[in-house]
């Protein structure tokens, strides 16, 4: 990903394309546990190589956590009434993965190969708001992020520029570099070139925007540095966005489940739905998997030459198996992040029409509910689905203890501080607590540094004829690319085993 | 556009919705010169109020500069062979306006009212490149913009933070604010919290990206401040983007000409195409417009109660008229910006597949050709149309003196420094020099401060029964919103005249 790759010097890595598997599978049987993204990718690639794959999936649909809620969609959650989506026809919400950054080349490899049309996911919108209640003169006001960004950088550049100009700093630059550095600060901070004062900039917004006729616009006044600091607004500013959050970002047109649906179509009839794994064993010759058909309650056993198990470790640890004690303890070593999302269908897109916010996130003061995210689809249509809650860890655990009407009330109360029409336009909600979803028991694997050292490497190694795969076996936990690339790595190892066995 | 508007305190302005015209047009005849966006908007709104509008348009299609080049599209330009678009079926290029920022509420008013589906135009992509050849160790290398942005801000924050930490600066902050300011700098610059050193950040990119299995990724090393300064890369960094360039930005799905097409459909049969205005006169009773039918060469005269003239001033000054000498001299006072675009159809989307650039702009070293812009549509499809040239002023004037193959050669030579496959994948081009397009004679009006004072106000005033409108009568020259909002202002004045006349 350096500039060199622009000249093709970089070599396509394990993150770009599936492994090239030399030799053929020759009908060897592979049983794949779980039709999430890792399982789908494995079945797809191994199938191409002549392996005979069967996928056991507990749910009646493929995708694992890659789900999209539409009218009629039901998500059972432990200790809760079944969550039933009652959105209007055409409205939907990705309550699992929702974003594909441009550098997740493995994910984009498949959207391209399978012909899944993409649209932009707006992950940055400085015209959205930040709202804080802590203290300071900007407390309790919805402030556009661009005001904070322009002003914090403007004030900081002014301070630095004036000291550089007076030669008051200890910096290892030549005179020529110093002049260029000053030029940088003037541009970065939008400073007056002579006084080096920061007096505001059009980019932070206008009191009156320039228009037609005799309206040249009226400039706005910056917030003072003290006000921004006292009001704790400055934390939203960062030189570049974090790697996983970077533009350009995508989503499939129509919902994230377009991805598993495309795999399912390409795979044909290899997935056994409603098949819940109850036991995983192996001998020197084969792997034996017991499973229960959910609909009938009947038990079955299937034998295979190899097994790729993509079941989340949070669930796998509850399934009878004959792994070594060391391996079992490695499976136990990871924790899974509790996380909730609450989607709010609104009668109108007031955030677009009234508040001129098109996509992106508003940063709320409330970590119980987290930030508000606006839909990146259906621009200017009548209704829309907001992400009103996205929380993690203990906030999520506590939030999921509320009943649904309490969850909605929390979300409306936070959103109402930013958008006047938030509560009035609310129509219906879809609520997810991933740690309560029985097939997942958590949002994603969360590795401590210690467990990464002690347990993680072992879980990546084949155990006899069984290999694991999934986002949990990656340094991109919680992302589809982690699941895909883990599958790529593990089928390569599986194929090696099969080739060695001859 | 302040946070207050979030609570509906702001009043819908002249920039949000068309003027509310009290009373009815009662069939009064309005002749509108030009079916560009100003003319279309005027005909649409006046038609709603019962005026009898006729639009004279020299071209055989509506939209003015709002054009989209597709296969078969022909653009005559002075002193050139007709430019004929020979793109593949399905490929297209907006060689006129190409972007709708979220705050152009007047434009978005019509995309919404007329049901024109929008998609995101990616106007910022820090994964695109900057390339300079001036000097310094980074000269002649395509560098990802995010490296420059992260490193410049990181180095600047480090310098400032260390001086703040040592209390070495003269800044008017309390001790508590000072601590928060330090916290801001650590976050903004991604500094090590203890040493306050900038050592790089994941956001600038990795040597090896974190992946699956035993790949935690390998960090990259920042460019030194001296290297960035010497190589003149720092100029791309700015606190926030300029107002007109801000996210969220849109384009109509399928091409910008979807907008005039939607107006045309809504208007019905009021536009006389191929009708070139040759004279504009008025008496106390009516306006008389002479025009020539292009196809037959026949001359006609049409009479109306009022006239709204949206012809670019660059062209209007060459049409016989009976304006006052003062008004004529005001029409002469504005200059029109020469500007060229060159669209390159490429056999493959190598910028996406090889270089992982999805939309946005790469900043070249060459102001003769300007920046390279990547398409924000057709993601991951086979072919695509790049904007290989976008230049202005004297660069554009000189560029348009080249023949087409020379223009293409210039573009390929610049683009080839950034993308290895640029030249090899080139297929065909569509070239526009707006200053040579006879119906426009320039990209947009460019007002000097002096002419804004002396001439501009007069041009906004009704001259008897004639009013002007267009982007040239706005402080948003070159933008569709300027044309729309000028039309809104001027039809309000026209309606007032009509009401006064009774």
TrEMBL record, chains A, B:
Question: What is the top EC class of this enzyme, as a single word?
Answer: oxidoreductase
Which Gene Ontology BP terms does the record give?
amino acid catabolic process; auxin biosynthetic process
The entry lists its GO molecular-function terms as: L-amino-acid oxidase activity; tryptophan 2-monooxygenase activity
Instruction: Please report the stretch or stretches of sequence annotated as the Amine oxidase domain.
Output: 37-488
The record's listing under SUPFAM superfamilies reads: FAD-linked reductases, C-terminal domain, FAD/NAD(P)-binding domain
**What keywords were assigned to this record?**
Auxin biosynthesis
Metabolic or biological pathway: Plant hormone metabolism; auxin biosynthesis
Database matches in Pfam families: Amino_oxidase
Q: Which EC number(s) does the record attach to this protein? A: 1.13.12.3
Task: Kindly state which reaction or reactions the protein catalyses.
Answer: L-tryptophan + O2 = indole-3-acetamide + CO2 + H2O
Give the similarity note: Belongs to the tryptophan 2-monooxygenase family.
The protein here is known as: Tryptophan 2-monooxygenase
In its UniProt entry, the species of origin is given as Billgrantia kenyensis
């Amino acid at each position: 990903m350096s500039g060199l790759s622009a000249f093709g010097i970089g070599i396509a890595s394990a993150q770009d394309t599936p492994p090239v598997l030399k030799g053929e599978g020759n009908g060897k049987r592979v049983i794949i546990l779980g039709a999430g993204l890792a399982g789908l990718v494995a079945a797809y690639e191994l199938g191409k190589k002549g392996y005979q794959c069967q996928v056991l999936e507990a749910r009646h649909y493929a995708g694992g956590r890659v789900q999209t809620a539409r009218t009629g969609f039901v998500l059972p959650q432990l200790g809760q009434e079944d969550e039933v989506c009652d959105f209007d026809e055409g409205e939907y919400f990705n309550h699992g993965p929702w974003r594909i950054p441009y550098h997740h080349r493995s994910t984009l490899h498949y959207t391209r190969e399978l012909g899944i049309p993409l649209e932009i996911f707006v992950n940055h919108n400085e015209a959205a708001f930040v709202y804080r209640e802590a203290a300071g003169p900007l407390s309790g006001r919805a402030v556009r992020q661009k005001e904070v960004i322009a002003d914090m950088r403007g004030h900081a550049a002014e301070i630095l520029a004036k000291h550089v100009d007076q030669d008051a700093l200890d910096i290892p630059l030549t005179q020529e570099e110093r002049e260029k550095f000053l030029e940088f600060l003037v541009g970065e901070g939008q400073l007056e070139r002579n006084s080096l004062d920061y007096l505001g900039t059009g980019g932070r917004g206008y009191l009156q925007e320039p228009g037609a006729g005799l309206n040249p616009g009226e400039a706005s006044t910056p917030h003072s540095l003290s006000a921004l600091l006292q009001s704790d607004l400055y934390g939203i500013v960062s030189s570049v966005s974090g790697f996983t959050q970077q533009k350009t970002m995508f989503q499939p047109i129509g919902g994230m489940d377009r991805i598993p649906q495309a795999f399912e179509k390409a795979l044909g009839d290899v997935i056994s739905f409603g098949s819940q794994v109850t036991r995983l064993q192996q001998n020197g010759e084969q792997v034996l998997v017991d499973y229960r058909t959910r609909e009938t309650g009947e038990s079955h056993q299937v034998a295979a030459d190899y097994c790729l198990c993509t079941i989340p470790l949070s669930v796998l640890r509850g399934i009878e198996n004959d792994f070594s004690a060391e391996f079992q303890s490695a499976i136990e070593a990871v924790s899974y992040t509790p996380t909730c999302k609450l989607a709010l269908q609104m009668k109108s897109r007031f955030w677009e029409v009234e508040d001129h916010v098109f996509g992106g996130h508003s940063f709320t003061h409330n970590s119980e509910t987290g930030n508000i995210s606006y839909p990146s689809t259906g621009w200017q249509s009548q209704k829309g689905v907001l992400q009103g809650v996205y929380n993690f860890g203990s906030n999520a655990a506590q939030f999921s203890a509320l009943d649904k009407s309490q969850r909605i009330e929390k979300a409306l109360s936070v959103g109402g501080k930013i958008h006047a029409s938030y509560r009035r336009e609310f129509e219906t909600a879809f609520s997810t607590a991933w740690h309560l979803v029985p097939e997942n028991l958590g949002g994603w694997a969360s590795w401590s540094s210690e467990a990464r050292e002690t347990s993680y490497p072992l879980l990546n190694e084949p155990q006899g004829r069984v290999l694991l795969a999934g986002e949990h076996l990656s340094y991109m936990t919680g992302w589809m690319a982690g699941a895909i690339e883990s599958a790529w790595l593990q089928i390569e190892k599986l194929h090696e085993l099969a080739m060695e066995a001859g």
